[in-house]
Structures are given as C-alpha cells and as structure tokens.
Specification:
There is one protein chain. By secondary structure, the chain is of the alpha/beta class. The protein has 13 helices and 6 strands. It has a 6-stranded mixed sheet with strand order 3-2-1-4-5-6, with helices on both faces. Helix 2 crosses helix 3. The longest helix has 17 residues. The protein is elongated. The protein starts with 8 loop residues before the first helix and ends with a helix.
C-alpha cells in the first residue's frame, strides 16, 4: 500500500486514537507489531496516518489493547473503511488542506456547536458577507482566489441546509451581529439570513447581548463537532499559525464546559430572535 503524502485530519484522528489505545494498554510499537505479525515501521506508519488499516487488523489491535468500548471500536472501523470522496475533494490541492478537512469533519459530524464573537458563523454567512471577509483578510488575492473560498464556504452549508441536516446550535455575540462587514444592506440581508435559519427545527440560535454584565468569554470562539462517540469529538479553532484541530480528552472536556458556560450566559432562542429583529430595524 502506497504511503499517503498528506493525510487528512480525519485520517490523522484515526491514527491518533490507535496510538492512544496502545499507550493506554502500556504497549510499545514493537509490541503492537508483534501482535499483528508486521514490522514496527508499519505500526509507526499506521499511527502517523501515512497508511490505512484493515477492519480485521484494527479489531485485533483493539482486542489486544483490552479496549472494551465497542462503540468506539465500531466508530474507528467506520473511519478506517471510509472511502467517501465528497464535494470538498475538488478543492484539495487548490485551497489550504484545513478547508477540506473542516468540510469533511462537518460531513461526518453528529452535531455542531459554534461560538462566534466577532464574525457571523460560516454556516450562516451570505455570499456577500463571506466575500467581504475573505477579500479583507487576503488583500493580495485576485478575485478568482477569493471566489474559490466563497464557493467553498457556500457549499459547506449543505450540512445545515441539505436533505439530512445535522443538529446545529450556535451562540453569537451581539458584536458579530452589529459589525458591518460589507455595508448596511449586506448586514440587513445577513441578519435576515440568520433569522430564517433560526426557524429551522434542527437549528438553535442564541445571542449574548452587550447588556450582559460580567461576561469574560470573548475568547471562547470555537467550532465543536460531535463524533460518532464523545471520545471522537473535535474542536476547531483558528490560531495565528492556522487552523487547529483539538482532540485530546482533557481539552475536549474543557471546551464542553466552556460551551455550557457561554450558552448559559446567552439569551433564550426567542429573546435572541427578538434582539436580531431589533438590530435589523436599526439598519
């Protein structure tokens, strides 16, 4: 089997979980290789996401690692067997890998929770809003490069607008709703878009108002994606060096707690819609 040159975030996650299971069992890569009858470098390649692993070998490893979580093992098998080539693959090698990785994670997610402080969540953005953002953040880009990013963002919305949408809950700070990214008319259209989506049964929108006292969660921006089992959840955060995919157990629990706190500080959905209506009237 040829080695992968650039494993996807999903492939790397499978590799990381297999490595964690081995570490939890107190075994070395050499021990794991002996269990499968392969060479230690082959185990290293599997645990680096450079090559795949068959269902038979994965289940054999899990059994020898004394993993009793059948749901986790089944989920890992599904990841290993997945050959999905979704719409995002047409952008691989054209846009940064993180764009395709996030679209793939969205596709497989069981739910998504967002916290947005300064910008409207990507899954809600209109074309005009998204274009203004990409053009401002990348002033050196020609229009064709900006358009590629806009097209990709618009296609990502299939996970909340398509025939089988996932449960989606977002908390948006009033600042993100008030900042005029692309002018008054575009802002009005963007608010209308959020209101339309908030009426969907699988979507919950909450707003943190400026009037809230003692809110120190301005750094809470995140995308939280639910996995097939909680251990396979993923947090996506934008960082100065690029997009970061967070998946350690301790960090996931931290961000679950953070989302609960931000959600508790926000207005209920009905009051949130009322506030968005009022903001739209001001424009």
């Amino acid at each position: 089997m040829a080695l992968r040159h650039e494993p996807t975030a999903r492939q790397l996650r499978l590799a990381a979980e297999l490595r964690r299971l081995r570490d939890e069992a107190g075994l070395t890569a050499r021990d794991a290789a002996a269990l499968l009858g392969v060479s230690p470098p082959q185990i290293s390649q599997i645990e680096a996401g450079l090559t795949g692993v068959s269902e038979k070998r994965l289940r054999r490893l899990a059994a020898n690692y004394a993993c009793s979580d059948g749901g986790l093992v089944d989920a890992l098998v599904d990841m290993a067997a997945d050959r999905t080539r979704g719409w995002w693959e047409e952008y691989r090698g054209v846009l940064p890998a993180a764009y395709c990785d996030l679209a793939e994670l969205d596709h497989h997610a069981t739910f998504r929770h967002d916290v947005a402080v300064l910008h409207v969540p990507g899954l809600f953005q209109t074309e005009e809003y998204a274009r203004a953002l990409f053009a401002y953040m990348n002033p050196e880009f020609p229009e064709t490069e900006v358009q590629l990013r806009v097209d990709h963002r618009m296609k990502r919305k299939v996970v909340v607008e398509g025939p089988t949408p996932m449960p989606y809950e977002t908390v948006i700070h009033e600042a993100a709703l008030r900042i005029s990214v692309a002018g008054r008319a575009a802002t009005r259209a963007q608010l209308a878009r959020i209101l339309d989506m908030s009426e969907a049964g699988h979507v919950t929108v909450r707003v943190i108002p400026f009037a809230l006292d003692d809110f120190a969660g301005a750094g809470s921006t995140m995308v939280y994606l639910g996995g097939a089992v909680p251990r396979l959840d993923t947090v996506v955060r934008d960082a100065p060096h690029g997009t970061a995919f967070v998946d350690s157990a301790a960090q996931l629990e931290h961000f679950r707690m953070l989302f609960r706190r931000v959600k508790a500080a926000s207005l209920p959905p009905e009051q949130s819609r009322d506030l968005i209506h009022e903001l739209a009237k001001e424009l």
